[in-house]
């Protein structure tokens, strides 16, 4: 009987060892393979999604290029950039426009001075320093006409100071003046000229 019990125990021990060996092989070999397979499947799904996004982007490429061309053409038609062939001509044109605008508004132009051209990327910046006198209504008119002009002119670094009043001969008091001393820079742009 002890022999039968011992053989039965050996069989159970063999079965337990077999099950343990199968579990160990399963944990060591099969689980990492399954995990790697799931990870690769997720990576594949992410790549498929990215590929679909790129295909959608490429499908819109022609529409985007056409839209960019339309925007460039519209930009050219609006005439925001100065079309003179040199910076000196463009500067002279801006100075003449500023002079005409100030005189038409009823102000007095004291001076204009063209500052050196500065180039960044594909655009040249034309800067003109302006000194003028006039009242606040003249200033408003000048600024409005300059900033709504074609080609585009931007007002930069404006300095407005009241003019000193004149002393009255009868009362010996300084009478206030509505006149202003105005200094500003007018900036316009043109495409960079080939060198």
Question: Can you walk me through this structure?
Answer:
This protein is an alpha+beta fold. The protein folds into 2 domains: about 1-60; about 85-190, Alpha-Beta Plaits. It has 4 helices and 6 strands. It has helices at about 1-60, 60-80, 85-105, 135-145; strands at about 110-120, 125-135, 155-160, 165, 175, 180-190. The strands form 2 sheets. Strands 1-2-6-3 form a 4-stranded antiparallel β-sheet. The chain has a two-stranded antiparallel ribbon with strand order 4-5.
Distance between the termini: 111 Å
Number of helices: 4
Largest sheet: 4 strands, antiparallel
What's the average pLDDT?
83
Task: List the keywords.
Alpha-Beta Plaits; elongated; two-stranded antiparallel ribbon; four-stranded antiparallel sheet; alpha+beta; single chain; 6 strands; 2 domains; 55% helix
Give a topology summary.
Blueprint: H1 2-59, H2 61-78, H3 87-105, E1 108-120, E2 123-134, H4 136-147, E3 153-162, E4 166-167, E5 174-175, E6 180-191
Antiparallel strand pairs: 1-2, 2-6, 3-6, 4-5
Helix pairs in contact: 3-4
